[in-house]
Amino acid sequence: MAPLTRQTIFLLLVLIPLSNAALDSNYYAKTCPQAEKIILETVRNASIYDPKVPARILRMFFHDCFIRGCDASILLDSTPGNKAEKDGPPNVSVRSFYVIEDAKTKIESACPHVVSCADILAVAARDVVAMSGGPYWNVLKGRKDGRVSRASETVNLPAPSSNATQLIQSFAQRGLGVKDLVALSGGHTLGFSHCSSFEARLHNFSAMHDVDPSLNVEFALNLKQKCPKIHRDKNAGQLLDSTASTFDNDYFKRIVVGKGVFSSDQALYNDFRTRWIVESFARDQTSFFKEFAASMVRMGNVGVVEHGEVRAKCNVVN
What we know:
Cofactor: Ca(2+); heme b
Distance between the termini: 40 Å
CATH topology of the largest domain: Peroxidase, domain 1
Pfam families: peroxidase
Enzyme class: oxidoreductase
Number of helices: 12
Strand content: under 5%
Radius of gyration: 19 Å
Structural class: mainly alpha
Number of strands: 2
Shape: globular
Subcellular location: Secreted
């Protein structure tokens, strides 16, 4: 049997449909009314101490929902018999798990065994967006925490090198449409990438081009200076837009002029199925905010666990 290529693995994605679970924005109104206040205060304090927290929490939520659905499986630690999602190659750079654990500890003191880690992460993701100048939305709650977390499944996360067709297929596998894809990609307005995620665009890109021709020439030179062919600075990289601590539509404006950092970013502008949406969001930040909030609600309903558990600690099953 021929070995599986990355493309073959990509096409073997497990379907994770939108859930029919009865989530409710007032789910904890009687059982733990202070939960959202505790989460907001925890996230706000952590962000003051470390400005990278908002981008990290938003990415954590996305990476959680895309593997097994929004069940907090990304928060589980590896065990002697199992390597968990957080230790899979795409998640090695995911940080700030302590923020969710801190919120969980405080909530457990106030309302023991009531609020799931999955819901804490969903609320925290909304809060970091709103705190950074982005939209606010009512988070639907009532998720339970999953008990399974496998590093091997993280191969199914969209890669920075993905083309538009791969991205559209990946989102479709999770019941999300093309507009969801473009809107949620706008989450890159917060964040930073290390050279390893985009340096293939800068050196020996193809037989005809040393540098990806879809890159703005001046921008490509700037990236090559930050990420030379041989570099020893593991922290070197690039902000994903020019206002990386502010949630806005600058990400889309930069894609339009060839300044998308990832191949997957620029692919959204280079494909006719997604270009018009990119252009629309680049022109109209209000439209982007509206669609991003709606897409976050839809993504938050992917593969929701109804009959799992409420973990006492987010990093281990009960």
